[in-house]
Structure formats: C-alpha cells, structure tokens
Amino acid sequence: MYRTHTCGALRMEHVGNRVTLTGWVQRIRELGGMTFITLRDRYGITQLVFDEHAPKAVTDLLPELGREFIIRVSGQVRERSSKNPAMPTGDIEVSPDEMEVVNRSELPPFLIENETDGGEELRMRYRYLDLRRQVLRDNMMLRHRMAQEIRTYLDQHAFVEVETPFLIKSTPEGARDFVVPSRMNPGEFYALPQSPQTFKQLLMIGGYDRYFQIVRCFRDEDLRADRQPEFTQLDCEMAFVDQEDVLNTFEGLAKHLFQVVAHYDYQDRFPRITYDDAIGLYGTDKPDLRFGMKIADITREVQGQGFKVFDQAEYIGGICAQGCADYSRKQLDQLTEFVQRPQVGAKGLVYVKYNSDGSFKSSVDKFFDPDRFQQWARLMNAQPGDLMLILAGAREQTLSALGMLRLEMGSRLGLRDPEKFAPAWIVDFPLFEWDPDQQRYTAMHHPFTSPKDEDVGLIDKDPANMRANAYDFVINGVEIGGGSVRIHTREMQEKMFEALGISKSEAQEQFGFLLNAFRYGAPPHGGIAFGFDRWCAVMGGSDSIRDYIAFPKNNAGRDLMINSPAPISKEQLRELQIKLANGSDTG
To answer: Residue 76's closest CA among 92, 89, 65?
Structure first.
C-alpha cells in the first residue's frame, strides 16, 4: 500500500492514528537536532518530523534525501506544538517510524514553489515540474471544476454533448487555417477547425435542438497572453430561439459558474450595452465595467478657440480620473508617453487639473479660460481634486486610445479588482466591416450571422448600416464569448455571400453542403461560443491563459518541452508528395 491518506487529508481527528503517506519532498529543514520534511502531493502538504526517537533505519536515510525525491513513510499522526493556520494540515504532523525512497530526483532547474525562481521559458521547458506548483494545481482544478459544472448545468437544460470532426475543409473566412496533408489523397489537405460553426448548424438541421461541446479549436494567428494556436471552446447552439432566448440561457450558466466556482453571488440582470455605446463610452467593444471613468465627447464645446490641435480634429474626448489633481509633472509625462506608444496611437495628451481650491491648471492654459475649463468639468463630471485627460484626432483611433488610457488609469488607481466580476452583453453589432486592403466588406462576426429583420432591405443599397443579430459576452474587459442568431434560409445566405464578394461558384465549392442542407427545413437557430481558457483565467483573476492550460505554447507558437513544431523526415515528405519551398523533399 503506497498510502492510506493523501498529503492534504490529515486533521486533528486523525491524531493517534497510524498512517502511510507517499509524495514528493518539497523542503528539508534541520533544526536543533530535529529534521522537518514537507511532503507534497496533488492534494496538499504534510509536515514530517524526525526526532531522537526515530528509528536508526529511518534517520540513516535522511542524508540521502533531496528536493523532489519520492518517499513513502509510515508513522503516527500527532498534534503540532507550533501550529500553522495557513496550512489546512497545519494542526498536525506525522512522526515516521518507517521510510522508503520510492524514486530519486536530480536537483530541479527551478524552485517548485508558488514564488519560484524560474522564468516562464524555463518553466515551459520543464512544464511537468511547473505543474507540481500549488498555484498551477489550483488553476488546473479550477479548470476541471468549470468544465464539470458546465456539463452538469447544460445537461439539466436539455443540451446534448456531440463531438464534431477535427479534419475538415479549409474555408476562406476568418484567421489562417492549420492544414493537414492527406496521404490517401495526394495534393489535397484537411484543415483543423477554427470552430465547429457549420457542423453545429447542421446539427440543428438534424433535429438536435440543444447542442454543446467543450472542444479544441485551432487558429494560425499571432499570439499574445490570451491567445494560443490551439485553444478550448465551449461551443453551443439552440434551435427555435431568438436572441433573447440565447442570452437568458447563457446568462444563467454564467451566474451559476460565478456562484459555485468563484463563490460570487451575482443576482442582477447583466447589463446590455449596444456596440455604439460601448465604443462611445469606453473606447472598446469589451468594456471593463468594474469602474466608471466613462469617455465624454467634448468636441463641439472645445473647438473654435484657436487651439489648432482641437480645431483640426475630427473628435475630442476625455476621461476624468478622480482624486488625481495632485499628479506630478513626472506622472503626467509618463501618461503622455503611454498614449504615444504605437499600440495606443495618440499624438499627445492634454491635461486639466481641477484643484481642490476650485482653480484649474492645464497644459493649454493660454488657449482656454477658467470658465471653459468649468464647462469641460461639467461635461466630464469632474469635481475639485480630479484630473481631466483629453485626446484629439480621428474619431475611431482617438476613442480606442481613450479606452486604453482609461484602463491604464483604472490599473494605476487600483480599480480593476481581480476578485470582482463585472459581466455585460454587447449587442447590436454592425453586420459588416470594410476591409481597405481587400476593398470589400467582411463579416464582423462570420458570414452565417443573420441581420436584424428591420435592416434586411439595406443589404443591396447600404450594407454599412446593417446591424447583426450578434452579441458578445464580456467580463472585466475580456471578451469571453460571442455568438449570433444564424441565417437559416438558402436565399438569405446566398445574399450574404454576395455582399461579402463570394461568388456563387465559390460559395457552392466552400459551403455547398450547408446551402444544400438549408433546402430541407432548417429551423431558426442561434448560439454562442465561449473561450473556455479565457473564462478560466478571468475566474482565477489572471491575465494569461497559459497558466490555465496544462501544456501551452509560447509566444512563438512553440512547445519548448517537446520541441515542436519540428521538421519531419524526407520519407514522410515523399509519402505525402510534398516538396518544401526551397525545392527540397527533406525534413
């Protein structure tokens, strides 16, 4: 028997019991003729104590032990004289009278502690060691709990879990596909799915009116903290529903997860914000609602006073940072440098300090008098002691920059509490967006999204002003999910393809199976897909999804542990009838 209990199980009620534990040596401490070992497994840690009463066969093994050795010990549970309330097992310890070295370990390349000395690249190279850290174990357990609760909730609401194919056909819309050569069909390729979109629509046509799947998806795109080339998606679809049905169903799921996973009781209805309001008030379609600091449009009120930066701008907007009128010149210069970063894109920053005595101090004092500043303060809801921050330029770019400045100030002021959750639905998205490089419209969500009924007539004459039956789910400024009510008639789907510049022959070649299916009684349907990794990270209070994926890729899309991607042999290339770009057929 390797163990009678796990290393996280023992409590005061076990005092006096004889137990057997097996686990990894986390720490060894020698103190006043006594040796203390912290023994760890997946369930927790237990302190072992070896004193003068320990058998010689046991103490003789102590000098051999090192970090990450696996040992098995048997002995009596006793009450600790110096208890540790920070540990679940901190009231007890085990005094072994038997010990066996189950397996030895080399010295690990980094400390297997929550506060480790290993950098991310090193930890990813030895991910199996990194996974032993308590913080990673907690993340994996949160992920597991999320998945189990999702399955339970959806099963209780009549959803059926159905698997869809991984080897599918490449399509022209969306991000780049990962492609897989077919040995049995030389010169032809599968694509790995970016999502099961068309398959879940086919399931609705097949009569499975409530489907879900926790599924792996693949996109060949540039990476960042919340993006991986392979990721997990909670994919859902419902038939005979409208937008309100979908939002209510998955708002219920979100509230359930808040309560049972994060122990966060959210009773109110989630705010529903139109896309236009989200952009105008927060500078983004994924607003962080944990704090206010809304953007104010002050264009008309500030122009015409001889300040060229304002007079020549399409748009001028500002935010009010409460209690920041005492910002130093250095702090204001740092904010100016922030907005001038390429990823933010502003040319400069105008500030107005609304001092506690009611006076104003600004970087544009010579152009505007105190009465003007007072007017701005009313528009921006500023009070004495506040700081007004203003940007000017092209509307879209300036709003985006203000949105990023708002988040920066929220972080500086400690307003983005990771233990607080502020969900919202973003609705009424544009159906199309213009691609200046391709000189054509593209689908803002995807080409299967239905337009608002009242906007259908605009598809031939004014597609730019069409709104979609689409919605995004946002928590704390992170887009967790998105979906739409789908097109369910062949005629509307063909019109959509035409508006996107997809010819009839291309549509038939790429999506003929779906168009054909629409001939046989396709029900009205809609759904949503959630980024499962992102949702886990937000629930865990993290910005990075990598800490919630057991074996993630780095920013270059590489798995440093197994050294992938890697060349393949010339025999494999020849079997697949593939030549590399340099003309070689060798891996």
So the answer is: 92
Q: Which fold has domain 291-416?
A: Gyrase A; domain 2 (3.30.1360)
Nearest-angstrom CA–CA distance, 182 and 191: 10
Fold of 12-103: OB fold (Dihydrolipoamide Acetyltransferase, E2P) (2.40.50)
Could you report the per-residue pLDDT of 434-489, keeping only the tens digit for each? 888 888 888 888 899 999 999 998 998 888 899 999 999 999 999 999 999 999 99
Enter the tokens of residue 2: 């390797």
Query: Is the distance from CB of 281 to CB of 343 less than 8 angstroms?
Result: no
Closest by CA to 295, choosing from 374, 396, 429, 420, is 396
Q: Give the span between the Cα atoms of 159 and 151, in whole angstroms.
A: 9
CATH code of 139-164+196-272+424-548, in short, is 3.30.930.10
Q: Which two tokens stand for residue 154?
A: 């959806």
For the whole model, what pTM was predicted?
Answer: 0.91
Taking residue 506's Cβ as centre, other Cβ atoms within 10 Å add up to 13
**88-146 residue pLDDT tens:** 999 999 999 999 999 999 999 999 999 999 899 999 999 999 999 999 999 999 999 99
How far is it, in rounded angstroms, from Cα 586 to Cα 568? 8
